[in-house]
Structures are given as structure tokens and as C-alpha cells.
Design a protein that fits this description.
Chain lengths: ~80, ~290
């Protein structure tokens, strides 16, 4: 099990909103493949998969406000 | 579950062209802690700039001097309005040491407005430029100055410090001044550029934001006004709200329109124009200028 953690978005940017998941639960992903899209006040970011595997569980859903360091999903 | 494929579905309504790579947290952290260690502030952090990772990983830093509390409250800017504290007399040397320590080649010095002190901070700008030039004579220095109350003698202090580029941003169209930068005056700001161009010692640069509700005609007129001052270099970027208490974005301008604006600027006689959604006054400033431009 590997956790997908939201990395730092740059100094001063404390939160982001998940604008959508690009991968569904149960789908396989490659390392570096984009999993979800986030928006801050100033930009849109894609969150890449930290590893190869299957997206086991989405923890934070579309529309959720998330902070750096939070667990977004689990990979297997 | 909704799979997000269409930009229109984004909750924020932010278009796809405002997509950025995730910052390289490590390089941002490393540079930030170095700068904190040297007790210097940057506008990169204070303005919550979306380009910070890109700039920091390529060694582009814009220093913020004279504190991080501003005596004017522009509604596009993240910096807090209030009564600033005293000026740190060691700041010019601290900035010079950081510039040298990081081996920077081109740097931007900017500040909050300091209407609370008699020389409005112009002397501190001059000291900072001189300290940098003394420690690293090869470094190109751009100062992005406030309006110093329109006092030409104060602008001259900065110009005569040996700065390479004198920048003052017009920011928006005259009709939007009361809403966007109530403490500033359009004609006075243009006067800064005219005076700097008249002096002829430093290259003169300005910039403005789009997406605040200006019309196309107003934008074209704005560019003509800036060009008429003798200003040669221009930057145009998308306004993005730095925090919830600031003005909302009225319009996301597509990249094609930014290309048109650049063409218009060049047709008006600007020597160089940078125009794009993520363009900021000091974004990749060192790449913007080549030695032969100055």
C-alpha cells in the first residue's frame, strides 16, 4: 500500500481544491501518470502517481479542500 | 464518480492554459531557507507567485525591500496594508550578500510603498543597488519602484544609483484605478516612466495585468499611453487573485489574445514585450533582457 500525499504547492499556498480525479478506483496507473487535478487561486496542477500500481481508494473527493501533506488516495 | 476531462467542469472555472507543473518542493525549500537565513524577503513568497518553483529552480529571485507591510492597499496585491516598521539599515548589505552567495546574474529589487518616510524609501533603494553593484559588479539590477509620490528628485536617486533597468508598473487601465489601485494616480505613474525615459540612463520597463474587466479598446489605449512615455519594455500577464479578500478575476484571457497583445505592443514600437497568462513583471526577467538591449 502506498499513500498519495499532496506535496507542497509553493511557499504561501496553503490549500487547493480537487477539481477532479483523472483515474477511477480500481484503474491501473504508471509512475508519474496524472491522478488528479487541483486548483489553487493562481494555477491548476496535476498530481502525479508516486508509483506504479492500482488506485485502490480515493480518500479526498472532487470539491474537497486539501492541504499539503494530506493523504489524497491509496495505491496498491 | 466524475472523471474530469473538460476544463469547463473545473469547479474553479480556471481554464486549462493556467496549468502548472507541481513545484519542485525541495528546490523552493532550499532557496527559501537560504534567503530566510540571510534575513531577506522576496516578492515571490509575499505575492504568492505561481511561478515560484520555476523561478527558484533556475535562480531567479525578486527581492522585496523596505519591509512587507505597505502604506497603500492595492486590491490586486497580496501584501498587507498597515503601518510599516522601521527600515533595516543592514538590508542593503544582506541583499548584496544573498545575490553574491547565490551567484545570481540578473535580479529585481522591489518594495512596498513607504509613504510614511520622507524620502519614500528611495535612499534605501539607492543604497541597495550600490551595495549589490559593489559586491557583484557584473550583476544586472532592475528596480521595480513605487511612484515615490511623483517626486522626480526621488526617482533620480534610484536612477543615479547605477541601476540597469528602471521599472514602474502601470498595472491597469485608468478607468480601473479607483477599483484596483486606489492609492495611485494614472498620470502620476505615467510621469515616472516619462521622467526615467527622459533621463535616459537606465532602460525603462513597465507592465500591466489583464482580466480585471478592461475592454480591448481600453487595453490598446493603455499600451499607447505607456509607449508615449518613451518606455521601451513591456510585460503583460493575467491577473490572478492572490487571496479571497482581493478582487475577483473578471476574465481569463486566452493565450491567443496574449499573442495579439504582444504584436500590438511591438507595432507600437516597444523594443520588447513579454505577454502571456503567467507573465509577471519579474518573471524570467533575466531572460527578457539581453545585453544588447540595454
Amino acid at each position: 500500500m502506498k499513500k498519495v500525499i499532496l506535496p507542497e504547492l509553493g511557499e504561501g499556498i496553503e490549500e487547493a481544491v480537487i477539481s477532479g480525479w483523472l483515474i477511477s478506483e480500481g484503474q491501473g496507473v504508471k509512475k508519474g501518470e496524472d491522478l488528479a487535478e487541483l486548483t489553487t487561486d493562481k494555477a491548476v496542477f496535476n498530481v502525479p502517481s508516486p508509483d506504479e500500481g492500482t488506485l485502490k481508494k480515493i480518500i479526498r473527493r472532487e470539491g474537497d479542500t486539501v492541504k499539503p501533506g494530506e493523504i489524497l488516495a491509496e495505491l496498491e | 464518480m466524475i472523471i474530469c476531462e473538460d476544463a469547463k467542469k473545473r469547479r474553479s472555472g480556471m481554464p486549462s492554459w493556467l496549468k502548472k507543473e507541481l513545484p519542485d518542493a525541495e528546490s523552493v525549500r532550499r532557496l527559501s531557507s537560504y534567503l530566510k537565513d540571510k534575513s531577506v524577503e522576496t516578492v515571490c513568497v509575499n505575492s504568492r507567485c505561481p511561478n515560484i518553483s520555476e523561478c527558484y529552480s533556475s535562480g531567479n529571485v525578486s527581492f522585496l525591500i523596505l519591509g512587507n507591510i505597505c502604506t497603500r492597499g492595492c486590491l490586486f496585491c497580496a501584501i498587507k496594508k498597515g503601518l510599516p516598521g522601521g527600515i533595516n539599515p543592514e538590508e542593503p548589505e544582506a541583499v548584496a550578500a544573498a545575490v553574491r552567495g547565490l551567484g545570481l546574474k540578473y535580479i529585481v529589487i522591489t518594495s512596498v510603498t513607504r509613504d510614511d518616510i520622507p524620502d519614500k524609501g528611495s535612499g534605501h533603494y539607492a543604497k541597495t543597488v550600490k551595495a549589490i553593484k559593489k559586491a557583484s559588479p557584473e550583476v544586472m539590477v532592475e528596480t521595480l519602484v513605487p511612484d515615490f509620490g511623483g517626486d522626480k528628485g526621488l526617482i533620480d536617486r534610484v536612477i543615479d544609483s547605477g541601476v540597469d533597468v528602471l521599472s514602474h508598473n502601470i498595472e491597469t487601465t485608468p478607468g480601473l484605478y479607483p477599483r484596483v489601485r486606489p492609492g495611485f494616480d494614472y498620470a502620476r505613474s505615467l510621469g515616472i516612466l516619462s521622467h526615467a525615459a527622459f533621463r535616459g540612463k537606465a532602460a525603462v520597463k513597465s507592465g500591466f495585468m489583464v482580466g480585471l474587466g478592461e475592454s480591448r479598446d481600453e487595453t490598446e489605449r493603455l499600451m499607447r499611453d505607456i509607449r508615449a512615455t518613451g518606455c521601451d519594455f513591456l510585460t503583460i500577464g493575467q491577473y490572478l487573485r492572490p487571496k479571497n479578500s482581493r478582487l475577483e478575476v473578471r476574465e481569463y484571457i486566452p493565450p491567443e489574445r496574449f499573442s495579439e497583445l504582444k504584436e500590438s505592443a511591438l507595432a507600437l514600437g516597444f523594443k520588447k514585450a513579454a505577454s502571456g497568462p503567467f507573465v509577471r513583471s519579474s518573471y524570467r526577467a533575466g531572460e527578457f533582457f539581453k545585453t544588447e538591449d540595454l
